[in-house]
């Protein structure tokens, strides 16, 4: 009597369990040796960003301020033996730095509290190589504090760059001593200046004066950050945000935020991250790979993790200010291209704008940033797809409530989205504009709060006789922007050719560069 019941109960229980597994939203999942390729793809489609990663991704534009003793020695990498009497910015105004970036559309800034030379922009108790021993404000200055205060005034996110490599500390290379020193400095920075939104660690690790290589206690630092500033994302030698792999401002055309990790990393993550991600995911492959998370890459993984890309680049050739580079500042058009190849390739842009020896962002940088803001406004304030008649081949609208297609894809809200129904992962959406329009940029966004799924898409227009493809791409993720020769059309068709699961398209935009 009981047998048939068990026979029935077992598959039901397994089904419910699988539903539960797939309904759970996590930033990390293990892959078992019994998972089929289809299981792996389904798991990948359900990985989502943590709250702090999602907040960070939506900032789109963040800025670096490289400022320090190098600004005055006209160098890129100081050796830690600088004469500190040179450090005396005559008109320093952190309000001007932060206001400039805010007006250019940026949402968060990161200050180089200490670069590789070990010079500290705050009066650290633990070193003599700091602002305390400079003529600036007679040794009473604290530039980290000035930047933090300006961020509060202007409602901007605040981040710190603290270089693990320190060419001034004589005990660098004595791992225990130096790690304690670093921990003390980090504690100062995380407890004196209010809320910190991003902590940025560089990977450079030079030779210590004793000839030994310093072994950094990254995990101890991460624990400290999580305890003192739990909302801060830790980049790029960190668990939350990954370096895209170049310093050109050009990200990958295929950029997955869900990446494969190997067996050892899977165990470390599983052991330490019951509640939170506390280690750097050991992503398979290399940061120079063209595709880090496609089907070929995740097939052999032992785990999958949400680990999005940050694309850093400087507005000038160098990271620090050099007068000789005043005429080499990126123009508004170049900055727009950078926006398209960073934010528009599923990344966050981290643009460096280095203040000069006066302690101000120089005029040339300001002008180009103002022009960039104007260009962004005139391009993106008018989505030509707004008000279009939207006809999906097979799909429904979610989060909109009214079941209407129109509006959901152009409302600027990630959580209202279109998705295909049933088992269809490929779909077509046709847009009929009220009149022919000319455009040269298309923008797609996925609702990443439920995962990144789209693998391939094409966009076509109807020329009166037939459909003609004018652009195509692979991944979308948070945002995908594509630029092409201007097209004039009334009927546009988006085909999602392939997706890991039902695509969740939250935004569709057509724009025209002025
Ligand atoms: C690099 C550093 O060596 C550069 O000086 C700069 O700070 C850049 C953002 O990271 O690795």
What is this structure, in a nutshell?
The protein has 514 residues and is an alpha/beta fold.
**Overall 3D shape:** globular
Question: For the residues shown, what is the average pLDDT?
Answer: 93
Query: How much β-strand is present in the residues?
Result: 15-25%
> The CATH topology of the largest domain is what?
TIM Barrel
| Largest sheet: number of strands, sense, barrel closure | 8 strands, parallel
Fourth CATH level, the homologous superfamily of the largest domain: Glycosidases
Number of strands: 19
Helix content: 25-40%
Q: Which hetero ligands occur in this complex?
A: beta-L-fucopyranose
CATH architecture of the largest domain: Alpha-Beta Barrel
Within the largest sheet, what's the order of strands? 6-5-4-3-2-11-10-7
Number of helices: 12
- Unreliable residue runs: 1-8, 14-24
Radius of gyration: 25 Å
CATH class label of the largest domain: Alpha Beta
Describe it:
With 514 residues, the chain is an alpha/beta fold. The chain has two domains: 60-257 and 308-380, Glycosidases (TIM Barrel); 389-511, Jelly Rolls (Sandwich). 27% of the residues lie in helices and 24% in strands. It is built from twelve helices and 19 strands. Strands 6-5-4-3-2-11-10-7 form an eight-stranded parallel sheet. Strands 12, 13, 14, 15, 16, 17, 18 and 19 form an eight-stranded antiparallel sheet that branches. A three-stranded antiparallel sheet has the order 1-9-8. Strand 3, helix 6 (143-154) and strand 4 (157-162) form a beta-alpha-beta unit. Mean pLDDT is 93; it is low at 1-8 and 14-24. Bound molecules: beta-L-fucopyranose.
């Amino acid at each position: 009597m009981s047998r048939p019941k068990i026979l029935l109960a077992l598959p039901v229980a397994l089904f419910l369990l699988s539903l539960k597994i797939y309904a759970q939203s996590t930033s990390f999942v293990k892959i078992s040796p019994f998972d089929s390729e289809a299981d792996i793809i389904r798991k990948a489609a359900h990985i989502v960003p943590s709250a702090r990663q999602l907040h960070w991704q939506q900032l789109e534009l963040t800025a670096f301020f490289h400022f320090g003793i190098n600004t005055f020695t006209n160098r890129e990498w100081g050796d830690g033996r600088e004469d500190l009497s040179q450090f005396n910015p005559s008109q320093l105004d952190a309000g001007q730095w932060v206001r400039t970036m805010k007006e250019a559309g940026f949402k968060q800034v990161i200050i180089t509290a200490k670069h590789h030379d070990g010079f500290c922009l705050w009066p650290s108790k633990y070193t003599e190589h700091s602002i305390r021993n400079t003529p600036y404000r007679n040794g009473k200055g604290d530039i980290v504090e000035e930047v933090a205060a300006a961020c509060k005034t202007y409602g901007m996110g605040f981040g710190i760059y603290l270089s693990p490599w320190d060419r001034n500390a004589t005990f660098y290379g004595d791992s225990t001593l130096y790690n304690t020193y670093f921990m003390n400095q980090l504690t100062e920075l995380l407890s004196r200046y209010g809320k910190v939104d991003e902590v940025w660690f560089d990977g450079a690790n030079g030779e210590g004066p004793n000839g030994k290589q310093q072994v950094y206690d990254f995990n101890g630092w991460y624990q400290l950050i999580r305890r003192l500033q739990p909302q801060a994302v830790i980049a790029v030698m960190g668990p939350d945000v990954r370096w895209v792999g170049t310093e050109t401002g050009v990200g990958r055309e295929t950029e997955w935020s869900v990446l494969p990790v190997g067996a050892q990393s899977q165990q470390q993550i599983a052991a330490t991250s019951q509640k939170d991600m506390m280690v750097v995911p050991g992503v398979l492959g290399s940061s120079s790979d063209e595709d880090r998370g496609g089907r070929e890459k995740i097939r052999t993984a032992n785990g999958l993790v949400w680990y999005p890309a940050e694309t850093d680049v400087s507005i000038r050739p160098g990271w620090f200010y050099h007068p000789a580079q005043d005429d080499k500042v990126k123009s508004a058009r170049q900055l727009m291209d950078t926006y398209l190849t960073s934010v528009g390739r599923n990344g966050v842009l981290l643009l460096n704008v280095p203040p000069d020896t006066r302690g101000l962002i120089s005029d040339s940088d300001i002008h180009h940033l103002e022009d960039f803001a104007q260009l962004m406004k005139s391009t993106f304030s008018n989505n030509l797809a707004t008000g279009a008649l939207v006809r999906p081949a097979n799909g429904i609208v979610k989060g909109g409530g009214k079941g209407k297609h129109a509006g959901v894809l152009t409302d600027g809200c990630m959580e209202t989205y279109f998705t295909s129904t049933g088992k269809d992962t490929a779909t077509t959406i046709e847009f009929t504009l009220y009149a022919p329009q000319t455009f040269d940029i298309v923008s797609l966004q996925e609702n990443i709060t439920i995962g990144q799924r789209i693998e391939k898409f094409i966009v076509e227009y109807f020329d009166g006789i037939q459909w003609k493809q004018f652009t195509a791409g692979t991944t979308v993720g948070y945002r995908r922007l594509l630029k092409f020769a201007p097209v004039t059309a009334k009927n546009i068709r988006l085909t999602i050719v392939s997706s890991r699961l039902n695509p969740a398209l939250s935004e569709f935009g057509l724009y025209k560069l002025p």
